[in-house]
Amino acid sequence: MKLLVIIPTFNEADNITNLIENILFYVPDAAILVIDDSSPDGTAETVEKLKTKLSNLYLIKRDSKAGIASAYIEGFRYGIKNNFDVFFTDGC
Hints:
Strand order of the largest sheet: 3-2-1-4
Largest sheet: 4 strands, parallel
Order of helices and strands: EHEHEHE
Number of helices: 3
Low-confidence stretches: none
CATH class: Alpha Beta
CATH superfamily: Spore Coat Polysaccharide Biosynthesis Protein SpsA, Chain A
Number of domains: 1
Radius of gyration: 12 Å
Number of strands: 4
Mean pLDDT: 95
Oligomer: single chain
């Protein structure tokens, strides 16, 4: 069963590493998709660095702050396109 955790972000550079590490500690087989809305604090760059060490981490960088609802929709589309079976979100 392929699991995808969808994480929309905006200005989460200080938190994203810890969040990803904790998710993978508890669910090591999960794939994680971060959808960043052009965070000015370097969130996407932090995720890019983590991607060099984690083969199950993915990133979608969006050109503008398009909002959480559209980020989830984009995440679900990504998951469906890539044959994931189960989707996890933070419950928003």
